[in-house]
């Protein structure tokens, strides 16, 4: 009879420990990995960010810090009241996200509209900011930046001439100018936000541009 070496026994034990009997292959849909610990929000950095947000022409309200449990929070956030044009569904945003978004809205969006659409943008449509969920809604994934009020999803733009450009209809739509406009605002986002995801990233982003100030840079 062939004898089994000690290494073989140990390998078998390791494999057995990886797949405990009766344990589900995936965690329930309501769970996700806890967020990676981050440094505490620095009060001086907050003051500096708020001063920059004011200098960039935004009107805003400072919101109280909130902990929603399960790793989700709204720490160092503001509510943008006026950044030169209405934006639907905006909620709490971390100050760095709010400042980057203000500059992207004021500068990049209008420049792209002037270059490609011959009409200024008068309203931006969003899917919102805060949402306590894992990345892409995938069970077991890490916490989304939305769960930290550190992300915003943009779905469409309304022009002064009444036209509406949406990521879903126009990213790969028949109008070359609308396609170029959306790619221009996407690329401008890559220069201002840490992470930018659009329809070319995956099917889950087929109808919006995701901007966040998490760990990057990443642009797709």
From TrEMBL:
<dbReference type="Pfam" id="PF06904">
    <property type="entry name" value="Extensin-like_C"/>
</dbReference>
<protein>
    <submittedName>
        <fullName>Extensin family protein</fullName>
    </submittedName>
</protein>
<feature type="domain" description="Extensin-like C-terminal">
    <location>
        <begin position="48"/>
        <end position="220"/>
    </location>
</feature>
<dbReference type="InterPro" id="IPR009683">
    <property type="entry name" value="Extensin-like_C"/>
</dbReference>
